[in-house]
Amino acid sequence: MVADSRSPGATSSQGGTASSGLISPKSADAEPLQLTLEAAAQIRGLIIDRVLLPGEKIRQVELAERIGVSRSPLREALRTLESEGVVAYEINRGYVVAKLDDDDLGQIHRMRTLLEDELLRTVERPDATVLNDLKDLNEKMMVAIDEHNIPEVLRYNREFHFTIFDLSSLNQFRREVRRLWQMSEGYSAAWWWRQPEARKRINAEHKAIISALRKFDLDRLVEICAAHRTGGFERSVSGVGYSPVKQWSVNCGRRGSRRSSPMAR
Fold this sequence. Notes:
Elements: H1 32-48, H2 60-67, H3 71-84, E1 87-90, E2 94-97, H4 102-121, H5 128-146, H6 150-165, H7 171-188, H8 191-194, H9 198-215, H10 218-234, H11 244-255
Helix pairs in contact: 1-3, 4-7, 4-10, 4-11, 5-6, 5-9, 9-10
């Protein structure tokens, strides 16, 4: 076993498609940055798929062999994921998969609420192409749910929502929202398979979101997305039967009064 190592600095990334399996052989001739991004996407996919579990030590030699890259792009990928909060570096252990508790998830949810609501209130009116793209992404997501293909479900769900976020000019908001998604996706990935009504609920809510966009009713859009977001987190892997947002709100209330949030009611 070769000891974990890292050097100063971090390569930033706005994320990638979560998937598992070997990187394409064509990647051998790709630029170092592309190899790093592909490796980060592979590792992120393994975390989302629960192949790498929260708190688990990342064994770099085994992982490099598994995803088909050398140690150099792997280390860069791990630094990228560390900057996103997906992995953490611990003294005497090396890199581990970041472990979030219910309070962490509640804080992430609250941050997403604040940022995503602002993004949604500042979107431009979508044209027919965007609306058709959203419809197509939702249909592909339903197929992936039926096939129990978790990476594809997450991919199409992410593309669906970020297609909407891309209608806003608030680039810094969107970048931070993407980071928060990447930190917490693995915790919400498994609840779909334990909830018989999940497919029906997600499908109905996505269609309602598209309808609100078509009518350009931004108040309705924010309302639907808020319910959609909360439903996913309340059924997350860490928080089944427990609402991290409500609990976090209660904890904040004990420390002092704050403005009431519709997401905490």
